[in-house]
């Protein structure tokens, strides 16, 4: 095994052990230059052995998501920009559903100045955020609470959501594949997400740039099910063409 291959294997072991490793931690642990780490991460990400983010890398898997505490920090600035732009397109006096996700939680924060909103959610973090907004009425789905991220999932939550017909759904997902399929990891979570797609007049997808081409296990739907897409970086030509062919509005922040 070459020195470079051994180093990249060590990087993979560190990332899988910790879930996420910053550039600084990898440089310190391996004693190499930032340029070397960047090259190694690019090669490993190209092989889909890990996911590269600004400032570090996370474990890659089609069956298990990155730890929630880690997801909250990945591309946070981009998520906040996406959230502010998405919130600008929600009129006062609207009804909306926000689902599980760190980007939708940022949208919840960005709605603080809105008036006369009715917000339905299966995310207890969002319920807590929005209950502090003076202009919001908050309705929480019932069901099984997933402890690590405060998501309410399962059949009971799905049936609860189905009774509503709202103006807007703002949703996040784990990944979008090359066919335009929206993907996530937990089939119980996906049950609820599919119900949300069906009960909203307008569906706005908030997805940072790391979600494009990212694998996950369960299909939620397709870009054709979306009204508008909000993301934080210019899309490559193939992705932009796919969005255009799906007939959805693209908003770049």
Mean pLDDT: 90
* Strand order, largest beta sheet: 6-5-4-9-12-14-15
- Tally of DSSP β-strands: 15
Q: How big is the Rg?
A: 19 Å
Order of helices and strands: HEHHEEHHEHEHEEEHEEEHEEEHE
Please state the structural category. alpha/beta
Number of separate domains: 2
How many helical stretches?
10
Biggest sheet character: 7 strands, parallel
Helix content: 25-40%
Provide the low-confidence segments as ranges.
Answer: none
CATH class of the largest domain: Alpha Beta
Second-tier CATH architecture of the largest domain: 3-Layer(aba) Sandwich
Strand content: 15-25%
**What is the CA–CA distance across the termini?**
44 Å
The outline comes out as globular
CATH topology of the largest domain: Rossmann fold
Structural features:
three-stranded antiparallel beta sheet, single chain, globular, Arc Repressor Mutant, subunit A, alpha/beta, 10 helices, 253 residues
How would you describe this protein?
The chain is built from ten helices and 15 strands. It has helices at 3-18, 23-30, 34-46, 68-71, 76-88, 102-110, 124-131, 155-162, 187-198, 237-246; strands at 20-22, 50-53, 56-59, 95-98, 117-121, 136-140, 144-146, 151-153, 166-171, 175-176, 181-184, 200-206, 218-222, 228-231, 249-252. It folds into two domains: 3-60, Arc Repressor Mutant, subunit A, CATH 1.10.10; 76-252, Rossmann fold (3-Layer(aba) Sandwich). α5 (76-88) packs across α6 (102-110), α6 runs parallel beside α7 and α8 runs parallel beside α9. The strands form four sheets. It has a seven-stranded parallel beta sheet with strand order 6-5-4-9-12-14-15, sandwiched between helices. 40% of the residues lie in helices and 25% in strands. By secondary structure, the chain is an alpha/beta fold.
